[in-house]
């Protein structure tokens, strides 16, 4: 009978970003010579109970507990704070987290998580915050002492070939509330109206589909004289998006195309070829989609999102004019106009500077951390 693996990764896998981050960490562990098993959350029929923040965390914590119990391992890494919430004492173990409840679980729905925050963090053998902001939040929650912390960002790659049919602008809105879909659409309507003026192509018939306009000419095809610009929004189906926007009293503006959920390869190719990536998120725990855009050299247009958003300070350093003055639609529209108006030389310079800023988030950098610091801390020696 086979013995235990070196490392079990207990994964919630609730978003494309988390699944990608967990898969990358598993590959980094194995590249360092340790055996690794990913234990995915097991929900079963309980998945239907995820109707509020409180119930979602209870259901997912119990699902993570069942997943961890199914794997024998020398050490365990819980790949989010929620994954560690319902676990029994199990040592050694680490908690990897993009945020903690005191940051992203406000109100009554997060009260029990916040009460347990310090105890859950303190009993870990190692903390793996994904950003300096998350590390500082954990330090505040713990006060004096607590486990050692090693900042382990998600690995961000840029190996996708740009799609030939990529849009002028691209965004992600699987969760329309968190991703600010209403603000995004209002900002796009204002920015696009100024770009296309009275051009009748700006007002297609309802349901008309337009070809994407491409990265190097966000205002159209050759010479900028072709179709009006398009905003492609991934992660949410058109019917769901339109219904949600209608409840908010927001019309779907011209030039918006809802892509729905996409295979990762297709999504990253569209991002790599887009003119700009735009974010209207109300809160961001880390910002993987934005970071992948930066890694691909795509200008990031964003509101000053709350949370441990690692992409925001990078965006400000690269091009302050592309960071909206506030989180409103008018401010985002102004930043969008600036992003879509960037000349080719400015885009090239932006991509070069972004590549340098993204080096600490490369897979090679994370592999070194895993092999030289994290595995020795959990296993007692390098594998």
Major β-sheet strand ordering: 2-1-3-4-5
CATH class of the largest domain: Alpha Beta
Number of helices in the DSSP assignment = 14
Named CATH topology of the largest domain = Rossmann fold
Q: How many strands appear in the DSSP assignment?
A: 10
Q: How large, in whole angstroms, is the Cα Rg?
A: 22 Å
CATH architecture of the largest domain: 3-Layer(aba) Sandwich
Helix content: 40-55%
Structure description:
The protein has 14 helices and ten strands. It is α/β, with parallel strands linked by helices. The protein folds into two domains: 5-154 and 363-379, Rossmann fold (3-Layer(aba) Sandwich), CATH 3.40.50; 169-360, 3-Layer(aba) Sandwich (Rossmann fold). The protein has a five-stranded parallel β-sheet with strand order 2-1-3-4-5, sandwiched between helices. A five-stranded parallel β-sheet has the order 8-7-6-9-10, sandwiched between helices. The longest helix is centred in the N-terminal third of the chain and has 17 residues, at 53-69. The protein is globular and about 65 Å long.
List the helices and strands and how they pair.
Blueprint (H helix, E strand, L loop, with lengths): L4 E7 L4 H16 L4 E5 L12 H17 L3 E6 L2 H5 L7 E5 L3 H4 L6 H12 L3 E4 L2 H11 L26 E4 L8 H16 L34 E4 L3 H11 L7 E5 L3 H10 L2 E4 L8 H8 L4 E3 L8 H8 L10 H12 L3 H14 L5 H17 L4
Parallel strand pairs: 1-2, 1-3, 3-4, 4-5, 6-7, 6-9, 7-8, 9-10
């Amino acid at each position: 009978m086979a013995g235990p693996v070196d490392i079990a990764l207990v994964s919630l896998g609730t978003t494309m970003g988390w699944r990608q981050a967990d898969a990358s960490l598993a590959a980094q562990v194995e590249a360092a010579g340790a055996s690794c098993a990913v234990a995915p959350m097991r929900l079963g029929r309980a998945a239907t109970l995820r109707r509020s923040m409180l119930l979602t965390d209870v259901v997912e914590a119990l699902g993570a507990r069942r997943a961890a119990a199914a794997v024998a391992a020398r050490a365990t890494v819980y790949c989010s704070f929620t994954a560690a919430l319902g676990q029994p004492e199990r040592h050694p173990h680490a908690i990897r987290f993009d945020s903690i409840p005191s940051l992203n679980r406000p109100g009554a729905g997060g009260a029990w998580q916040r009460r347990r925050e310090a105890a859950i963090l303190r009993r870990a053998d190692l903390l793996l915050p994904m950003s300096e902001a998350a590390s500082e939040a954990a330090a505040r929650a713990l006060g004096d002492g607590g486990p050692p912390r090693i900042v382990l960002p998600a690995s961000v790659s840029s190996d996708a070939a740009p799609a030939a049919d990529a849009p002028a602008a691209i965004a992600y809105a699987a969760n329309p509330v968190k991703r600010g879909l209403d603000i995004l659409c209002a900002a796009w309507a204002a920015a696009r109206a100024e770009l296309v003026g009275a051009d009748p192509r700006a007002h297609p018939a309802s349901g008309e589909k337009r070809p994407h306009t491409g990265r190097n000419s966000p205002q159209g095809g050759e010479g900028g004289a072709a179709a009006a610009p398009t905003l492609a929004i991934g992660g949410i189906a058109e019917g769901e998006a339109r219904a949600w926007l209608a409840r908010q009293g927001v019309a779907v503006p011209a030039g918006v195309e809802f892509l729905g959920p996409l295979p990762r390869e297709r999504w990253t190719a569209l991002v790599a070829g887009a003119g700009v990536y735009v974010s209207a998120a109300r809160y961001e725990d880390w910002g993987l989609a934005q970071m992948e855009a930066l890694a691909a050299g795509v200008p990031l247009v964003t509101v000053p999102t709350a949370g441990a958003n690692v992409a925001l300070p990078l965006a400000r350093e690269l091009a302050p004019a592309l960071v909206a003055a506030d989180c409103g639609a008018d401010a985002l529209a102004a930043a969008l106009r600036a992003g879509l108006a960037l000349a080719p030389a400015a885009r090239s310079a932006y991509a070069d500077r972004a590549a340098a800023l993204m080096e600490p988030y490369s897979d090679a950098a994370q592999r070194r951390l895993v092999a030289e610091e994290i595995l020795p801390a959990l296993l007692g020696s390098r594998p």
